[in-house]
């Protein structure tokens, strides 16, 4: 597959990736033995929204966010994406980054919503990789190809499980941002990074 084709596939999978997964920190989360069933239910609801041709795009976005926001820990994702820089910045800078990063992710999702073309999502297995880490293995089934998407869950102190990262065809979304931000901050300031978000 040519590089342009890979980039298009990545953009499309980020859209399908269930999508609306742009995230707020929430008091609601998933119990360990319910991860697969809860995610399957949420994914089915999201796909139903996407497949409704009569529903306006703005309404689709709101409905999808309301379904998927609950299971993501956006604060942790923000911290991971900045790596060591997170500890070096002020609380005000953290708050600004948190808000801007969320807006960036949501804007990116909204822009790509029209790329969805009736792909299906199949949950394969919830695999415990560490005591406090679970990976939910899923496939995106398109007309001609099947792609792997893995949701990474961590166990919070409350005992509930939240998503902190997603791998799309072997590429971590949060680690990708982390590399981009680290490269940017080698030559520019954190405040300059905020201006780019």
Structural features, described:
- With 197 residues, the protein is an alpha+beta fold.
- The chain has a single domain, classed as Nuclear Transport Factor 2, Chain: A (Roll), CATH 3.10.450.
- 50% of the residues lie in helices and 20% in strands.
- The protein has eight helices and five strands; from the N terminus they run H-H-H-H-H-H-E-E-E-E-E-H-H.
- The protein has helices spanning 3-16, 35-51, 57-68, 74-82, 85-88, 91-112, 173-185, 190-196, and strands at residues 120-130, 133-141, 146-155, 161-168, 171-172.
- It has a five-stranded antiparallel sheet with strand order 1-2-3-4-5.
- It is globular and about 45 Å long.
- Mean pLDDT score: 81
**Could you estimate the helical fraction of the residues in percent?**
40-55%
Number of domains: 1
* CATH homologous superfamily annotation: Tgt2/MlaC
- Through-space gap between termini: 30 Å
Major β-sheet strand ordering: 1-2-3-4-5
Number of helices: 8
Shape assignment: globular
What topology does this entry show?
Layout: H1 3-16, H2 35-51, H3 57-68, H4 74-82, H5 85-88, H6 91-112, E1 120-130, E2 133-141, E3 146-155, E4 161-168, E5 171-172, H7 173-185, H8 190-196
Antiparallel strand pairs: 1-2, 2-3, 3-4, 4-5
Helix pairs in contact: 2-3, 4-7
Question: How would you concisely characterize the structure shown here?
Answer:
The protein is α+β, with helices and mostly antiparallel strands. The protein has helices spanning 3-16, 35-51, 57-68, 74-82, 85-88, 91-112, 173-185, 190-196, and strands spanning 120-130, 133-141, 146-155, 161-168, 171-172.
